[in-house]
Amino acid sequence: MTTLKQVAAHAEVSVQTVSNALNAPHRLRPDTLARVTRSIELLNYRPNRNARSLRTSAVELIGYCVPTWPGDQVHLVMDQFLHAMCSAAEASSRHILLFTAPAGLDGMAVYDDLHARRLVDGFVLSQTETHDPRHTWLAEREIPFASFGRVWGEQTQPGYWVDVDGATGCATAVRHLHETGRRRIGLLSWPRLSGLAEDRLSGWRSACKVLRLPTGGLAVRCRQDTIDEGASGAAKLLDADQPVDAIVAISDMLALGAMSEIARRGLTVGVDVAVTGFDDSPLAAVVSPGLTSVSQPLDEIADALIRQLCDGEREPAGRLLEPQLVVRGSSAPADTGNTAGGKPS
Amino acid sequence: MTTLKQVAAHAEVSVQTVSNALNAPHRLRPDTLARVTRSIELLNYRPNRNARSLRTSAVELIGYCVPTWPGDQVHLVMDQFLHAMCSAAEASSRHILLFTAPAGLDGMAVYDDLHARRLVDGFVLSQTETHDPRHTWLAEREIPFASFGRVWGEQTQPGYWVDVDGATGCATAVRHLHETGRRRIGLLSWPRLSGLAEDRLSGWRSACKVLRLPTGGLAVRCRQDTIDEGASGAAKLLDADQPVDAIVAISDMLALGAMSEIARRGLTVGVDVAVTGFDDSPLAAVVSPGLTSVSQPLDEIADALIRQLCDGEREPAGRLLEPQLVVRGSSAPADTGNTAGGKPS
DNA sequence: GCCGATGATTTTAACGTTCTAACCGCTGTC
DNA sequence: GACAGCGGTTAGAACGTTAAAATCATCGGC
Asked: Do A95 and B100 touch (CB under 8 A)?
């Protein structure tokens, strides 16, 4: 392995000059810079990150706790979010270090350890929960972090956060369904303690109010984020005295359940009943018909988180980003040339 | 931040003794060890990993390139594999460092750089492809790595690998279907250049031969790993003169497509036509009926990879692990109490 | 031609750890 | 009584880098 010293010898300058060539090239006379650069390339020199970090006490690594979901639940956009994070980190010449930790306060020892041992400079949090204790814990110890997601149920939230406006997302879905002629729009959501669910629900409710659409009895709470739960939730909406002609689901998983329930009854998704999901997971594109879904700007989110963490832009609180509705066959069959048969007799 | 020096002062020993207390406690007299340990705890000392790594030139980090899939394709077990890797790494007091790189040889500069800059000790490769150039490249440069997946199409493969026996997996699925009374078992696979696909296909074919089941015209190649492709593949098998009564899919995605195609035709999955998938992705458990699928022992795989990489167990070549069939309603409706209606008069 | 200012480069001293060799006190051997 | 051996401990150097201070050369102004 080549070191600074060897490069310095080769270029006939001091070690510090080589270091400057890399970290502060403007300090060198053009000709020496050229000479040093040539030597660096010739010897294929790469700075040793450990020595650098020891000296500067910055490791340029960001910790991210790999999320676990209870039971059968799936993180469908995990790939995409991780990829976005990696790319964003690399754009700031950082990297992501993965680790596992128990949920809640129990896990904080792990965070503390990683930071104290200098394995990471800071953390990106995701999967924030109602009354999530991590933010306060980290802030009290002055450990840098940035959060994807708000801590629901608190007045103020320590530290920087980025989140997607779930209410707007669902409201957009409702308006889209209204524009395509739907007049009775049900909602599939989760139990009441999920701040995420309440946020998205509120968007559905307010959009319906504005458009003078009914909401009474049209919000069903599914126990889990599974296809099965989505299907039985949809069944309730379809069995009602006045059945719905559209279903807004606050997740793609629930939406998939709704789609399968609709198909099971011999109805055609997108024709008889429209469905929208949330997350625009890869599955939304590959099911048939395609699932209209609210897409989160994951690249932008990752960018904001990493930039805040690295370049230390001191933004006061957080940023709420606008999601985007991706329309597919489940809500607009004409556009996608959906020719689904399968409707018996 | 507490350092060794401060602990040493507190315990009234030399710096080296504190270091020994942590790295070679057997060298200390029990009473000094106790004294030092008490000081360490009292001062809440954590060794600085950068200094340690600089000295020992081992960073205890393992690089993993976050996989990208062409087009709409999804890595459904990504969460699980990453989690398994993290856990395995932590069991050997390592961590996973994520990065992105272009596919094939183009990406090798990134691997080289990470290694040369001492950001990682070695790599875990996944998503191995036919004639994958990475293995040879890394081996030539003596950069440590371990591969999840074989390099198809080569005589010998440099470096250590772990893989799952796809042939056995599919053969098990075929036998299971045969035991439950199926006699005409179709296969959904991918284009011929995928080694993975050929491996799994061979298991289906050989099991069918042994059981004297037909195979001619019963293997359909889907262009992509999507639900849509699976559905149209299944359609071919169901439209044949002698339609199949079971479908073995070499991925859960194709299996999901098959399930939806079967349902679309008013047939009942698991009753009229049985379906099996591969990977036992989280979706397999949450669709209705549940999807019988071949499960890869991800924890064991991750363990083997990490152990090989860290503890440097010099195994000659690689290990082929046995997958396990997880039976659900799509192939054994009785067991799961599947009461699906929806079969139109 | 001296002085201070400016710019380019080098010297010195860390950063916090571990490795190597040396040291110390004790025991047992010849 | 000299000496080897041993367990326990420590001093000194090294790992490869960068920050801060010091040095040296150059130059314009008076």
From this structure: no
A138, two tokens: 């980290």
Count Cβ neighbours within 10 Å for each residue of B1-38 and write b for 16 or more, e otherwise. Answer: ebbbeebbebbebeeebbbbbeeeeeebeeebbebbbe
Closest CA to A177 of A42, A254, A273, A317: A273
Q: How far is CA B236 from the centre of its chain?
A: 30
Burial profile B321-337: b = 16 or more Cβ within 10 angstroms, e = fewer: bebebbbbbbbbbeebe
- Closest by Cα among B221, B219, B281 to B256: B281
Residues 6+ apart with CB under 8 A from B11: B17, B18, B32, B35, B36, B38, B39
**How far apart, in whole angstroms, are the C-alpha atoms of residue A87 and residue B102?**
12
CA-to-CA distance for A85 and A246, rounded, in angstroms? Answer: 35
A266 Cα to chain B: minimum distance (Å):
7
Return d(Cα B114, Cα B137) in angstroms, integer: 14
Please indicate if any CB of chain B lies within 8 Å of the CB of A83: yes
Which tokens sit at A256?
A: 């998939």
Q: CA-to-C1' distance for B254 and C6, Å? A: 72
Half-sphere exposure of B241 (CA within 13 A, CB side): 2
- A135 CA, D28 C1': Å apart: 58
What is the pTM for the complete model shown?
A: 0.92
Pull the structure tokens for residue A112: 């503390």
The nt closest to A14 (CA vs C1′) is: C10
Contact B301, B95 (CB under 8 A): no
- How many Cβ atoms are within 10 Å of B239's Cβ, its own excluded? 9
The CA R_g of chain A, rounded to the nearest whole Å, is: 26
Q: Strand A95-99 and strand B95-99: pairing? A: antiparallel
Q: What is the pLDDT along chain A (345 residues), one digit of tens a residue?
A: 899 999 999 999 999 999 999 999 999 999 999 999 999 999 999 999 999 999 999 999 999 999 887 766 677 888 889 999 999 999 999 999 999 999 889 999 999 999 999 999 999 999 898 889 999 999 999 999 999 999 987 778 899 999 999 999 999 999 999 999 999 999 999 998 889 999 999 999 999 999 999 999 999 999 989 888 999 999 999 999 999 999 999 999 999 999 989 988 989 999 999 999 999 998 888 888 899 999 999 999 999 999 999 876 666 688 999 999 999 999 976 544 333 333 333
